[in-house]
Amino acid sequence: MQCSYRRSIKCAGTLLAILSLAACGGLPKGGARTASTAMKGNERTALAAVVRPRVAAHPGQSGVHALADAHDAIAARLVLADAARRSLDVQYFIWNKDLVGKVLLERLLRAADRGVRVRLLLDDLGTMPSDAVLLAIDSHPNIEVRMFNPATLRSPRLLGIVADIGRLNKRMHNKSFTADGQVSIVGGRNIGDEYFAAHEAMNYADLDVAVIGPVVKEVSDEFDLYWNHPASIPIASPSRQNTTPEEFAAKRAALVEHRETAGQSQYAESVRDSEFARQLRSRNISFSWGRATIVDDHPDKVLTSSAKTETHLAPKLREVVDKTKRELFLVSPYFVPGKQGVELFWLAFANVVPGLS
Predict the structure, then answer these.
(1) Three-class SS of residue 131?
(2) Does 55 map to a domain?
(3) Dihedrals φ, ψ of 331, to 5°?
(4) Percentage of the chain modeled with pLDDT above 90
């Protein structure tokens, strides 16, 4: 009994010491960190040749193609990864280590092999691939991986999260996939089987849009804002590990093997036969044209008090709501507006629906 008690005390002391170290750490040190921005001079890429005449026919407007079908949504990302010739800027909250997650990682590696600069920005809380896998990806000379607001304590990472929950509760939910600065995919889908109808037991109804035109620069500006923020840390800094050429080769071989197996599946066949893939083959992808803009919260939220609402998304959304005159469509998997939010939307609806007020 006494031995067990002493062991418990020792374990508790070790746990408290770990938690204290993690809690005092704040953001991990940034290490070698070079600022970069979206690439310029993409006018001669294959994507630009396809996009340019369509945009020129609608001056000042952006084209929007809805990706409501899950198979269309994954097909569009695969197409952009394969079509990119200069840059891929990829930003997600969740990236799972499942069929879809591994296939897309392998696609990014193949793009990097062609000389494409790949910037991969992931939220640390939602990312499922291990640090070892991400470090291997990052070791490719044309790929850089950064983690947004990462836990200082990496193993076990859950302890690091619990110890510094005040800071680590401020996450990056942004999701974008931009190729050569010409086409972006934005919307609700993270990277995981359940978002693309590839999960055997659970699939989410969600919505993305592929966009071209002026709004793509807004997506790129948002990506650059987060990418260059002090809260976006190169994966090598918090992990404090190195990847050997042998480890990279092993991780790469595993992803290639997974891709070859997945490519023979019934799911892969359904993606190749998706409506988006058929439209692509016939060069007949349709777009709806109009004014489009991106709204986002500010990464300074990590470094400031939650009471500082100027970093929040809600005030920017309110501006959109307040300017609405005729119709307002909301698509979101979450709707928890609170009392003030309910009042805001009631006032907005009262302005556009006669007799509602």
Answers:
(1) helix
(2) yes
(3) -125, 115
(4) 55
What are the backbone angles phi and psi of residue 114, rounded to the nearest 5°?
-80, -5
When divided into structural domains, the chain yields a total of 2
Contacts of 13 by beta carbon, 8 Å cutoff, 6+ apart: none
Quick check: 25 pLDDT over 80?
no
Q: Which residue has the tokens 């556009």?
A: 352
As a whole number of angstroms, the distance between CA 58 and CA 215 comes to: 13
Structural domain boundaries, residue 180: 23-281
Residue 305 lies in a domain: no
CA torsion angle 349 351 352 357 (round to 10): 70
d(CA 79, CA 353): 42
Q: For 297-327, write each residue's pLDDT tens digit.
A: 999 998 888 888 888 888 888 888 788 888 8
- The tens digit of pLDDT for each residue in 49-68 reads 999 999 999 999 999 999 99
Residue pointed to by tokens 């897309």: 104
| Cα dist from 214 to 49, 56, 86, 207, 221, whole Å | 16, 11, 19, 21, 11
CATH number of the domain enclosing 195: 3.30.870.10
Residue 291 maps to a domain? no
In a domain, 166, yes or no: yes
Which residue, of 228, 262, 281, is where some domain finishes?
Answer: 281
Claim to verify: residue 56 and residue 184 sit in the same structural domain: yes
Q: Between these two residues, 214 and 239, which has the higher pLDDT value?
A: 214
* Contact between residue 18 and residue 153 where contact means Cβ atoms under 8 Å apart: yes
Using an 8 Å Cβ cutoff, are 119 and 90 in contact?
A: yes
Burial 39-65 (b: 16+ CB within 10 A, else e): beebeebebbeebeeebeeeeebbbbb
Same domain, 139 and 249: yes
